[in-house]
Amino acid sequence: MSRIRVLCVDDSALMRQILTEMINSQPDMEVIATAPDPLIARDLIKQLNPDVLTLDVEMPKMDGLDFLSRIMRLRPMPVVMVSTLTEKGSDITLKALELGAVDFITKPQVGIRDRMLSYTDLLADKIRIAAKARISKKIETTAPPSLFKYQSTSLVSSVIAIGASTGGTEAIRIVLERMPTGVPPIVITQHMPAGFTYSFAERLNKICTIRVKEAEDGDVLEKGLALIAPGDKHLEIRKVGAGFQAFLNDGPNVNRHKPSVDVLFNSVAQHAGKNAVGVLLTGMGADGAKGLLQMKNKGAWTIAQNEQSCVVFGMPREAIVLNAASDVLDLKDITKQILTKVGSY
Description:
By secondary structure, this protein is an alpha/beta fold. It folds into 2 domains: 4-132, Rossmann fold (3-Layer(aba) Sandwich); 145-342, Rossmann fold, CATH 3.40.50. The protein has helices at residues 13-24, 38-48, 64-74, 87-99, 113-132, 168-177, 197-207, 261-271, 289-297, 315-321, 331-342; strands spanning 4-9, 29-35, 52-56, 79-83, 103-106, 159-164, 186-190, 211-214, 225-228, 234-240, 243-249, 276-280, 301-305, 327-329. The strands form 3 sheets. It has a 7-stranded parallel beta sheet with strand order 8-9-7-6-12-13-14, sandwiched between helices. Strands 2-1-3-4-5 form a 5-stranded parallel beta sheet, sandwiched between helices. α4 (87-99) links the parallel β4 (79-83) and β5. The protein starts with a strand and ends with a helix. Its EC number is 3.1.1.61, 3.5.1.44.
């Protein structure tokens, strides 16, 4: 079995050394070269044709986003961004995901052995996922929200629940960007670290017709509002009076994740039952598959993204295997089907 060939691009010599040691400690991958800036990296890509690129988000000589944009236009390849855990770093990272990066990882905290071992495992997992990812051009929305003639009732009687992982930031954008005002409340779990989900929600809020925000404990679910689980808390809903409220749960990881899609979907199954639509989008692993089945068993309409439009066909595939999906749809068709099931379209 051939090993995954990785090119690491980072202006820090120490970081290049750390990443090289981590990657080379894995039996199924190797660093074939490193580069201190995008200009050198460009030549190495041409010479060595790596399988995966790790790329620092803030680079000298050429803006990292400009470099990524050129890569995706001229030589599309799997890219894992290495990001600083700052507001600026999270904004750049989210833009990189829009441009086509498969995933990102925050820079390691050097010197703490247990954390370094855990980081090595996480980095290796992301490189393995990236090596198998479907790299495609950015999908634009096909119709502005004004063309969707959605008729909503006066009461919040339905809930839309969405789960995603690798590739999910763009998939969620495509689903939400086409949602009209008045749509039933939307609750979302996207696998993402703390500090990034706030920036993700703010970014979506600027481009969507509906309102998007990071969920807070006790938020009331309202029409035209999408809540995104914070990166370090599980998001659940509960029936309160005639409507629903969001609650945050600081419990242990579920399916290795916090937030977990299964936690969200199970709460929607319990409290919304048949008055819900569940959507499982692109991502590695199985988180959300059993929860989607719970929703379906309670009468909800459930949707899994199809393989052709997924960056990683893991979570949706597991749901399909469990017969948890009422529909298996291309990403571009999911918003219309959601609206068909929760109102009139």
